[in-house]
Each structure stands twice: as structure tokens, then as C-alpha cells.
Amino acid sequence: MAATDPIRDRYEGLVGQLLGVDGVMPPRGGGGFGRSALRYQGKIFAMLVRGRLVLKLPAGRVTALIRSGNGIAFDANKGIPMREWLSLDPDSGLNWLSLATEALDFARGPGPGASSPD
After folding, report:
1. What count of Cα atoms within 13 Å lies in the side-chain half-sphere of residue 82?
2. What tens digit of pLDDT does each residue of 29-51 get?
3. Are 33 and 23 in contact (CB under 8 A)?
4. What is the DSSP string of 30-99?
5. CA geometry: angle 82, 86, 92, nearest 5 deg
6. CA dihedral defined by 116, 61, 104, 90, rounded to 10 degrees?
7. Distance CA 75, CA 85 (A)
8. What is the C-alpha to C-alpha distance for residues 51 and 38, in angstroms, rounded to an integer?
């Protein structure tokens, strides 16, 4: 009997919770970058990479989460941290659905009527 991976199981549960949201697309599988990614209208907002939940969030939020000890900057295995990507510490007590919803909201962009910088 094969052992289950609790992190992968948790991620699959997260995927199941978000798939009913309009515009959210499931992981495509296969090989290459983003194979485990949840997408909103084609934009990756959450994925499982090397056993860690990786989320695209505003840079300031990523910095705050890193400073609070909840993760590290994601670097896509290239050694260069990506400022809007957080690799969540597997031991973090933060709620995955809440964080993924934040990432989804970020992927959606500013709402109607939002002002753009001049």
C-alpha cells in the first residue's frame, strides 16, 4: 500500500474548493512549469512546487508574510527571488483557502472603478 502525501492531498482539496469559482481553471498536469497550477483566465495564482504551496500575491503582502516567518520568496529554481511569489512554509498555520483566495483576487486585478496610477 503506497503512502499518501498529506501536502499533495491538502493541495488537491484546495483545488476542489476553488474549481467552482468562475474563471478558475484546474491544473493541466503533464510536465513543465505550472503543471500543478491553478489559473484564473490563464494566469497562474497558486501551485504546488516541491511540496510547498506557492502563491502570487502583491509584493508588499509577500514581504509581510516572509517577515512573519510564514514562507520564503519563490525563485522558480533559478536562484532569483520573484517579488510577487511566496513559497509558503509547510508548517505555517495560515489558512490555505484564505491565501489562495487572496491570490485569486490579485489575479483578477483591480475591480471596476478602480483608479489607475498616473
Report:
1. 14
2. 777 777 889 999 999 999 999 99
3. no
4. SSSTTTT-EEETTEEEEEEETTEEEEE--HHHHHHHHHTTSEEE--TTTT---TTEEEE-TT--S-HHHH
5. 155
6. 170
7. 8
8. 15
pLDDT of res. 114: 47
SS3 6: helix
pLDDT in tens, 59-102: 999 999 999 999 999 997 778 888 999 999 999 999 999 999 99
Residue/partner pairs of 72-76 with CB below 8 Å, 24 or more apart? 74/49, 76/33
- For the chain, give every domain's residue range: 38-108
pTM for the whole structure: 0.87
Question: Any idea what the Cα angle at residue 67 is, between residues 66 and 68, rounded to 5°?
Answer: 90
